[in-house]
Amino acid sequence: MSYPDPLYLDGTGEISARYRPTGTTPNLLNRGGGSTDYLATTGSTHGEFGLYRITMGPRAGGPPEHFHRTISESFYVLDGTVRIHDGERWTDTEPGDFLYVPQGGLHAFRNDSPEPATMLLLFTPGAPREEYFEKVGQVSDWPEHERAEFFLRHDTYWTDPGHRYP
Question: Rounded to two decimals, what is the model's pTM?
Fold first, then answer.
């Protein structure tokens, strides 16, 4: 394996870094006391990756088993206990635990704990996950055809086709 072709060709460098201090207000407040921080979106990384900090409130649950056809997803637990499914078994994780799920890999996650939990989600290559995070909590109120189209548009395939998330 080698480095990819250069994207920056000028020899002097440029001022283009983006800083986000720890006290920045979350981009999205989720039901159940959670939040989502858009640390690096597909737009800001030119499609290379998307990085999000997800804070789940106590007993917040989470999506059931699913997979993605076009994106990989990685989980890094920062705080609390996130229950993660790797396609074979459920594991109660702790801070510092990591799971990589390649395209097609079955996975799920949830917070069943009475305490909040926080993790980083990394999607590669980048995908427009912001709309997904902003609207997924509303889909249970939508007609079935709209719900199905939403999940297909966001590369989310349930192993239980009759599932009605959330």
Answer: 0.90
